Amino acid sequence: MAAAAIAALVAVLFLVAAVDGTQPGPPLPAPLRKYKTIHPGKRNQVLTCSEPTDHRKPCVATCPNRCPEECLVYCPTCTTYCLCGLYPGFTCGDPRFTGADGNNFYFHGKKGQNFCIVSDTGLHINAHFIGKHNPAMSRDFTWIQALGIRFAEHRLYMGAQKTVVWDNEVDRLELTFDGKLIGIPDEINGQWQSTTVPALTVTRTSEANGVSVELKGAFEILARVVPITDEDSRIHSYGVTEDDSLAHFDLGFKFYDLTDDVHGVLGQTYSTNYVNKLSVSANMPIMGGGPRYVSSNIFATYCKVARFVRQAGISMITTRAS
């Protein structure tokens, strides 16, 4: 399939490079499960990146200057990357996406609503937005709080739990598959594998708040729960209060089996027929057309650009683990 050949990395992560003029970089190396998260000065800075069969020495990594407090480590090479380095497919903050074509754009959505960000014949992904209203603006500040993922007959939920006081070492991830809670060992590389869909795994990339989700042959998702800090709120006038740290997702996607008919806020950029009509030279190119992408709930597949067909090709993948 033409769009599958793109296989570009997509991730939703923290707003950094958009304000300093950084240009999009090439896709990150794959697979995403090989990435771990480190916090310099914390006990997990010296990272054992090896798998039991690799016989590699522990990886001692240092974060880049642009993101000294937290970064991703690609274990095979011990290379570090900023979470929001504007790689194709990355998106962050009030959400800024980097499409598969490498162009950046914002999609503000509306707090409390769900939007289809990827819709294809065999895969549908909705995002639930939380937000804060700024009376001085005509729109809400918004962030992605949850994902609802549909494939074949299955439903995968990924959520960032509401948190009053943020602590990096307290896990705020909520994951369910077909309505049942997913339990993952509280250690880096801890893994859960579905018994009904062996090709589906969830692996911890940090001891708390970071995972890689993979449906082999279909997609990978790199997810990190983060808060809005007091500093973020001060700089951007978010108006964060003491009763809610606005925990939300930084995310990354890699797709392997999309068709050229794929749509959605992000998904459309993976089609070889996609024509970018945004003003890419603007400081904040904004993708409009919000009503086209609205879904009635986190798992609904009836937005105006929906393409999902429950028994389409991806269902063949769900029965195999390799």
Overview of the molecule:
The N terminus is likely disordered. The chain has a seven-stranded mixed beta sheet with strand order 7-1-20-19-18-17-16, with no helix packed on it. A seven-stranded antiparallel beta sheet has the order 15-14-13-12-11-10-21. A three-stranded antiparallel beta sheet has the order 2-5-6, with no helix packed on it. By secondary structure, it is mainly β. The protein has two helices and 21 strands. The chain is 3% helix and 32% strand. The longest helix has 7 residues.
Short overview:
By secondary structure, this protein is mainly beta.
Number of strands: 21
Q: Roughly how much helix do the residues carry, as a percent range?
A: under 10%
Strand order of the largest sheet: 7-1-20-19-18-17-16
Low-confidence stretches: 1-23
Our Rg estimate from Cα atoms comes to 18 Å
What is the distance, rounded to the nearest whole angstrom, between the alpha carbons of the first and last residues? 20 Å
Order of helices and strands: EEEEEEEEEEEEEEEEEEEHEHE
Mean pLDDT: 81
Number of helices: 2
Keywords, separated by commas or semicolons:
single chain, 7-stranded antiparallel beta sheet, disordered N terminus, 7-stranded mixed beta sheet, 21 strands, mainly beta, 3% helix
Give the SSE map:
Layout: E1 9-13, E2 35-38, E3 46-47, E4 59-60, E5 71-74, E6 79-81, E7 90-92, E8 96-98, E9 104-106, E10 114-119, E11 124-133, E12 140-151, E13 154-160, E14 173-177, E15 180-181, E16 191-193, E17 200-204, E18 210-215, E19 219-226, H1 230-236, E20 248-255, H2 290-293, E21 294-295
Parallel strand pairs: 1-7
Antiparallel strand pairs: 1-20, 2-5, 3-4, 5-6, 8-9, 10-11, 10-21, 11-12, 12-13, 13-14, 14-15, 16-17, 17-18, 18-19, 19-20
